[in-house]
Please model this.
Amino acid sequence: MKELTKKQAKLVEFIKKFILVNGHSPTYKEIAEHFTVNINAIQQAIAALVKKGYIEKVQGIARGIKLTEKPVRKDDRFTELQRAKANMITIPLYGSVAAGEPIFADNNIEGYITIEKPRHSSGELFSVTVRGDSMVDKKIVEKDKLIVRKQNTASDGEIVVALLDDEVTVKVFKKNGGLPYLQPANNRYDPIHKPFKILGIVVGLTRDFTAV
Amino acid sequence: MKELTKKQAKLVEFIKKFILVNGHSPTYKEIAEHFTVNINAIQQAIAALVKKGYIEKVQGIARGIKLTEKPVRKDDRFTELQRAKANMITIPLYGSVAAGEPIFADNNIEGYITIEKPRHSSGELFSVTVRGDSMVDKKIVEKDKLIVRKQNTASDGEIVVALLDDEVTVKVFKKNGGLPYLQPANNRYDPIHKPFKILGIVVGLTRDFTAV
DNA sequence: TTATACACTGTATATAATTACAGTAATATT
DNA sequence: AATATTACTGTAATTATATACAGTGTATAA
Model:
């Protein structure tokens, strides 16, 4: 029998919930008391679950039960949450005005946002809040929080976050032959041919419709 | 002295990293060995940190050190990540075609997305992927993943996810006097006056520019 | 200057927790 | 039919871990 028995499934779910609620795994005794069985029934049941790959155990230490990514059933949100949490990253949200100081200075951090690590994008990420309506044609609007991969080069047509006159701005990067320039995605604005510095490439965004 | 001393700050950071790496808190002994001091130096130091509110301790149990949300320094991503993880929720991403079955059926779950719990929105959330261009004027485009609060009523002008002809659709809810109807946010489409069922209100969205 | 917090050592103890050994019985698998 | 797995009880041993008590010395705050 490779799959879980009903009792085993209940045991795994109890452990998952316990860890979620308490922040640490239960002891054999605590589990045994919950199911009102002998400690060694649990000891052996845990061994079986480890063998099947549903949990892991650090030998010898107290509260050493660890969860694996193996889901118990299809709608197993505990496991999914666990997996997602393991892939979460916290990235700084920078303010958009660099008053002399470098934009990536620690005291320009306005907060943090925590997201699942993008699958198709590596490298250092940061976030900025969109100001103005210069990117509406690309469906990027005021207050959107952009997920940006830090880099100082870009290809033609990519949406970049750039430093322009000491301010952070989002534009389309253009480079067809001549000097590179920044193109707003809104025909009410003209292309910008002033010097700028690329801070990164936009790889994602989050929007909150309920924000005040 | 209300703030952390250098030694205390190092201690807190050690504990945070330990928990992050190992998934369980260190024992006094493990900490003492790391700093090559006596166990009771740690015991007392932990008590001081608990008193200052930087960590919490479950009395009597093994590996019972818990982190609090108090950041050690401004750029304290461990604390932020910890705080964020505590507020993470995993919500199901439903497919958009209900072939006879109810849309919220478990086997219509295409995956999960994990997000920080929206501050201004309570209730049960779910997610759907946007199809088509009927909402471009509201800056919502194909492949955007909508964060939706499950409810079956809406106010005039709210962006709703609704079930229409057994398919999930995103539209603006309209109800000015007469019968409610669904309004696309794209002038190439006409208002829809057919019967529909509101599944929820759009409270947020995420977009991945790197997706294939 | 007196009290309080910090930063420790050293010894000891109680309990928390894991692990081992020896069984029994039912069920599932080969 | 033989074997392995599940699902337990019961006793015991060992180690892991937290906590208590008695100190020492330094720095800091009232």
